[in-house]
Amino acid sequence: MPSLSLGADMQRREFMTLFDGDPAVWHNGERALQALTGKREAMERRGRVVLRDHMPDQHRLFFSERNQLFLAALDASGQPWATLVEGDAGFVTSPSPGLLAVAAILPASDPASEAFDDGVPVGVLGLEFETRRRNRVNGEIRYVPGAAGFSIEVAQSFGNCPQYIQERRLVSVESTRDGSLPGPVRRTATIADDDVALIRHADTFFIASRSLMPGAARSEGLDVSHRGGRPGFVHIEKQHHLIFPDYRGNYFFNTLGNLHAEPRCGLLFVDFLTGTTLQIAGRGTMVHDPEALKSWPNAERAVVIEINAVVRSERRSRTRFEFVGFAPQFDRFETPAEREDQTS
Fold this sequence. Notes:
single chain, alpha+beta, 36% strand, eight-stranded antiparallel beta sheet, globular, 8 helices, Pnp Oxidase, Chain A, seven-stranded antiparallel beta sheet, 17 strands
């Protein structure tokens, strides 16, 4: 299967042409949004500190303690999909600061599995719900067809702030020995009624996006990011469109910077009690119209997703979590009466 990534020499040539030799920390989409918010110079300085081409030891340890990794991966058409791999604690190891080894593989039913190959780009998010800690890696897959696992050669490593992450407690990691995991898989062009229910109850989802020149700048490649809100924060428009708020964050603009130039993206919703996952492929558009933001007074913008494909997998996730509490940032967004209504 052909590689979906650019060759290293071509990447360097296009990089030098685009930026005239400037060793860019951020790609053009990220730079554009940072400039719009008045953070361009500050983020250039910050990026040179927080974006690394290797994992520090604390990140290597963090990933090795996870039961799951959230991934951004591409299908054969170049469409990004958000997905996950899971295992018992220790299924992820780090032989060196530039390498993650994962003792798991995407199931054949996953839409990103068809193009899962050596040398293709990948985005990784490790998330510890109990502490709201998260770390990211972007790089390339190292994979031998038929193997039971793969490795990730790190191109970029960085941590993220804990904002908007709901606190959850790990209850169990289900066994696959009895054959009940994963369950049935359904593929549709639009969301069905049970998908609508899952989305409306969700307080968390993950979004995969890509830049147009993977690997050319330190911040480029595939990316998978977390989004959180009170249940119902993702609105459904006629089962063909989703819209969600974008709150003030760290000004990296990894996701929105990618969408600025390449609208294709993938969303992943997880039912943390049953393990059911909902993967949505579509195209994202940013909205700044104040009328469209009325539902989210504290949002700086919204993102509309035009849905192209949906994959629902029953009991896909092995991990089971119980809800502990909402991210403290949402308390600032609501009056005491609204908070009481949310918890009643």
